[in-house]
Structure formats: structure tokens, C-alpha cells
Design goal:
Distance between the termini: 10 Å
Shape: globular
Structural class: mainly beta
Helix content: under 10%
CATH class: Mainly Beta
Strand content: over 45%
Amino acid sequence: MPIQKLTLASGTATAPGTSTPVAIGTLTGDWTLFLNLATFADPTATARFVIEEATSSAFSSPLGLAVFNLAGGFNNAGGVTVSFRKREAAGSDLFGTSGAYARLNIQELNGFLPSVTYNCWIEY
């Protein structure tokens, strides 16, 4: 079966915020989550990206699945990509659970003029 791709979030952020929840209840088997920062030019900038999952789209009790703390100072072709695999999940994997959702939460975005262009997806 070919690898499939599900986009979790993409865009440009200048402040913390969360993406629209994406259903993950039908995703079973192995998966890898990717976060690519295409541009994060401010060398003083730092950011904390958290991939969260929850048992409903309301996210009243989100669970942190993966946390990426990244520093700015680049603006190059391809950017920087980090990943997280299913086997690295410490018991908090709701993929394949009926009614489960995931989202990207930019918890912190600090710096003089912080702006980050990102793309987050799941391959399964």
C-alpha cells in the first residue's frame, strides 16, 4: 500500500495559536509525523510546537503527543524538518481511536519580529 499523507496544519504564524482539529480515528498502523519550518528568519526567535491529540474536536483535555522546541535564524530552500514516529509515543497514541482528533499548537513564539512559515503532516 502506498504511503498516504494527511495535512495537519500549514501557514505563517506571528503569534501563538492552534490549528483546526483533524480527524485521526481512521488512521491505523504505523505513522510518522513531520513538521517543516520553511522560514524562521529572526535569529532571536524561538518557538515551541506541540502536536496534540484528543478524544473530541473540542480539545477540552488535549494530550501532548510530540514537542518540538526550535530556534530561528534561517531562511533557506527546504527549511528545517523534524519528525516523530509512532514508536516514540509514550502511551498517548489515539490514532485509530473512534472520534479522535489531532492539531498543531504553537504554544510559544518569541523574538524581536517572530514569523514562522510551517507545514505539518502525517504519513501513514
